[in-house]
Inverse folding.
């Protein structure tokens, strides 16, 4: 394979702190939406909630207008994997599985994060898939933390550990063609982060890199198709999908998960940088 020349933006500690500001705005928007999710609520209503939180914080919704995208969030229900457009007509129903993806720009820096939640009473098998996606995301982030502190980490160590955690979790389709990405002064930057593959390949993981890690898995086929709206990605077999995401920055003593309120401490312990001050996480 031809080696691609990557242009990876490295951030200073001060710039990572600015990314933290954007990350917390995204976390607040997702928390507000999580609170509002219920049967009978439309995805347009959730979009409005997120936009309000983002603008009240003095930030800008990064999705809105991105290549013409019309909203501040992506809301992807059931067989929709990612990039679902929120609408007033899409009213959530009991048992739906909903992925909410949100991004914000504050002081020129980006945060990008997603959660998958059940609407009302939801099939435990679907909720388990969401948990497996989350576990896989954290496994990938942990791999990056270990790799940057021991100086031997490579990009695909993240991919490998994501895949390993998914396989451990059960028989899921690992969506191909979509994945994580570099992030900083733009939402989508080099490098692309695959959610599967062999370890030890790709660029070295170095201090100052910031990456969005976002596994997408399905109850069935890993294959997807894009709908005629030019955005919504659905599974080809229409099986349900889960998608979760966090933005993280690599520091000399671990990672800082900028879109997690606690910076990742609860899931990563000592793999979180000491730069991340202790944060009291509201229940
Ligand atoms: Mg996202
Ligand atoms: Mg992303």
């Amino acid at each position: 394979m031809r080696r691609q020349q990557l242009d990876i933006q490295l951030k200073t500690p001060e710039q990572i702190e600015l990314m933290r500001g954007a990350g917390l705005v995204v976390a607040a928007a997702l928390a507000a939406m999580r609170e509002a999710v219920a049967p009978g609520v439309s995805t347009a209503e959730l979009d409005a909630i997120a936009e309000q939180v983002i603008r009240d914080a003095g930030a800008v919704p990064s999705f809105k207008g991105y290549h013409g995208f019309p909203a501040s969030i992506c809301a992807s229900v059931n067989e929709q994997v990612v990039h679902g457009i929120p609408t007033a007509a899409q009213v959530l129903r009991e048992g739906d599985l909903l992925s909410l993806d949100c991004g914000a720009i504050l002081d020129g820096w980006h945060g990008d994060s997603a959660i998958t939640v059940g609407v009302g009473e939801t099939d435990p098998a679907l909720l388990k898939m969401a948990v497996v996606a989350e576990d896989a995301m954290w496994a990938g982030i942990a791999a990056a933390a270990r790799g940057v502190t021991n100086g031997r980490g490579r990009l695909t160590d993240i991919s490998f550990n994501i895949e390993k955690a998914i396989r451990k979790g059960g028989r899921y389709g690992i969506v191909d063609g979509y994945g994580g990405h570099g992030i900083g002064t733009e939402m989508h930057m080099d490098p692309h982060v695959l959610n599967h593959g062999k370890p030890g390949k790709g660029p070295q993981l170095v201090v100052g890199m910031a990456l969005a890690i976002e596994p997408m898995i399905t109850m069935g086929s890993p294959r997807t198709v894009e709908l005629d709206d030019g955005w919504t990605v659905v599974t080809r077999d229409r099986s349900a999908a889960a998608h979760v995401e966090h933005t993280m920055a690599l520091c000399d003593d671990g990672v800082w998960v900028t879109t997690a309120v606690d910076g990742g401490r609860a899931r990563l312990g000592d793999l979180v940088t000491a730069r991340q001050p202790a944060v009291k996480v509201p229940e």
Summary: The two ends are 48 Å apart (CA to CA).
